Structures are given as C-alpha cells and as structure tokens.
Amino acid sequence: MNFTGLIAAVCAVVAGAVCVSKISSNNKAKIKFAENDDDFASLSGWPLLGNLLDIISFGQAKKLSEITVPVWLSPPGMVRRLAIFDPLITRRVLGTNTPNIALLGSRQYAAFLGPSSVFGLAGLEHKRVRGLSAKAVSKSTVRLYFENIKRLSKDTVESMAADSNGSKPIDVNKYFEKFAYDSICAFMVASESANGKILSGLYIEYMRFAAGLTAVVFPHWMDFNDDIKKGIQARAKISEKLKIIISERRQELENGIEFADALSMFIESRDSEGNFLTNDDIVNLFFALQFAGFETTSKQLATMYYQLTHCISQTDLQLLRQEVSQPSALESEQLLSALPTLDAFIKESMRALPVLPAFAHIFLEDITIDGKLIKSGVTVAPYRDRTMFSVENSEIFKLERFLGENAFDKTNAAEYMPFGYGDRMCLGMHLAKMEMKLLIAVTLKSFELEKSGNKVKFTRYPTQFARCK
C-alpha cells in the first residue's frame, strides 16, 4: 500500500499566540519608533492573528524575526505585548528569576485550566508543583510508556489507512488529535486498564472543553455556540471522573498495590519539606498537559506529514526510511532515541514550521529588558524559534542541519529552543518527542511514501487532506 499526497496544514490559533506577519522592505513606515529612550518601538496593528505563516513569501518579505530589538505589538482583539525576536534576549527573559505567569494563567482562563494551574502559578508555588511532577515527566520515566504509545501509533496509522479505503481523502488532523489525547491518558494511567478506558472515553467531553477554552480568547459576544458554558460543564464532568480515579488510586497505593504510571508518581511524590500534590493539583496537571500537548503535538504531526510528502528531499526520505526499517528500531525508547536521522527530522520540522514559535508571559514584578524597565503586569512574548528564518537557506527543508558534530542545535544552542527555556520549559516535552518519533517511524515502517507533485498552500487550519493509496 502506498501513502500518496499525505498533506495537512498547521498553525491553528492558540491561546496566547502572537502575530506572525511580514514587513516588506518598502513598508518600514509601519514601525512607530519610541519618542524617548525609555521605551521600545511600536508596530501598527496587524490584521492577522495566530501563527499564520505563508511559506510562499519566505524570500519576498522581511519578517518580524529580523527585527533585532524588542517591539510592541497590538494584535486586534488581543492584549498588547512586547515581542522579542533576538534569541539572546529571549533566553535572558525566559531564564529570569522575576516571578511571572503564562498568559494562559491569567484570570480569564482560570475556569478552564484551574485557579491553581501550573500556567498561573508563580514563585515558590510554581516551583513546588514543577518539582513534585518532575519525576513523572522525566525522560527516564517516559520510557515506561513506550509500548503504550507505540500501540497507539500503530492503531492511529492503521485507522487512517482503513478509513481512506485506498483512495478516499482524509483529514489527518482529527486522527492526530485523538492520538495526542490518548497518549496523555496512557501517560496518566495504563491505557489498557479500566481507568485508561474511562479517560479515553471522555474524549468528546475534552473536545468540548477545548472548544470552550478557544472561545475564551475572543470577545464573548462571538460565542454564538455557547462554547464557553459547554466547555466549563465538560471540564466539571472530566474533573469528577478524574477525582474518583485519583481517590481510588490513593487507596490502592495505601494497600500496597503498585502501578507504573504517572498518576501513582504524582500521588507518591514528596519534596524535602514533605509537600505533596493534592487531588486538585493532579486534576489541573492533567488539563495543563492535555492543553499544552494536544493541539501542539497534533498540529506538528500534521506538519510532518506535509513535510514528508512535499518538503523533504528524496535522498533524505530514503535515509529516514532505511533507518526506521531496521528490525530493532522500535524495540525500545532507547533504540528509538538513538536514530539520528529520525531525530534530525523531528528537529528540522520544529525549526521550519513550529506550531507555537512564541509563548506569552505576564511578569508580576518590574523587569529590565534590553536596558529598559518594563513595569509589572505587562505581557511579554519571547520568540523561541527565530531559526525558521535566520539560518542559511531557511526555506529549504534539509536534515543535515541537525546531523553530526556541527548539528545546528549543538553549535547554536542559544537560538534553538523548540520547547522553550527556563523554569517554564514545556513540562511534557519528553512525552511529546516520543509521540512524534513513534508515529512518524510507524508510518515510514508500515507504508511506502511517495513525494506529491501537487503544489499545496499552507493554511492556518487543517483544511488540506491526506490521500492514502
């Protein structure tokens, strides 16, 4: 069976996403420079929201990422923010000890992500929750979920092939969304267990929750479908089920029953002062991991399918296929992690078209950025991935950038931050990397891919389709 024309779009509107647009060489007047040295320049309002990037215009326009100093952005309908594109300034801001919360931690999102969500915690309380959850999300622990995620990968790819019936176009994104959701459920509790099936069965409720959270980003008068109310109700239903599962697990652990999953690690985790995660903490962590890993992982996988069939060279595709076809390639997480070409593909995909190139933070105290004092309460949006524009021949997709001793992430570590930097680095990054590697490896191992000759324009939403043949 051949997979042909597997294509998808990327870059959905994400809460807290910043404007990605272009400034043409004859359009510099749109930058309004500060009237004094105490402030940064401002850009006029931009009509495009979200991570919208038209790949056709790569060589035709000067991107915002080429601006070397922080600038104020005022995207329509969204809070004014200070955008930072210089990677060195980005690292200093993300690595600061100044208390801050993610934009998703602000009050308007509390009904969905929880009043004590890790997104909204700062200082010692943020450190407490991150520290207590660290073991469960570490690379060494994530290896425990390898077989479960591999099975989900195979089920997803086989389901796509069956539904296409050899020629029917399918929207790959809906399969990847379910895969991302189920992977996090399998991380929390074994997916084959009764509790795993309960969590997986709440997928429709989670989709209502996600729709409501998205609706919060926009003016409430635009919520014609009452998504916010439905989303809050869905969260309550999921929370109720989760709390029952957590309470039962606590009792089972007290009775000496052992489990190898994140839920047990969350429950048993203690720090040096005896602090532990409450039931509400664990519920909020589930929603935080789902929200952070659901949309991003699924959209990045859709992007990878596009890149496999439209961007990658035939030589690189052949190398990738040969590597994952080794008999031992999918036997363990350690062997999977040792595949350099697959690793390079994942990294190049996240460089070329990252789903979330920036993430907004609200600083709770004054902070100095590039020599200027920024008052508390200001939203700051440090870009993590200027590399999608700044490297040589950035519009060309090539794996050699991340292979060998001169791999870009080794020689330019300051510029490459696909999962963020500092104390708000992506909590589930090891799980996300394993999900992406396994699904791509299973696809390449199970099917013969062919490059598509069709010209496809990337769009904000996954409106393009895959054709399995």
UniProtKB/TrEMBL annotation:
One Pfam match: p450
Membrane-crossing segments per the record: none
SUPFAM superfamilies: Cytochrome P450
List of residues binding heme: C426
Residues in the signal sequence: 1-17
Superkingdom of origin organism: Eukaryota
Family according to the record: Belongs to the cytochrome P450 family.
Stated name of the protein: Cytochrome P450
Organism: Physocladia obscura
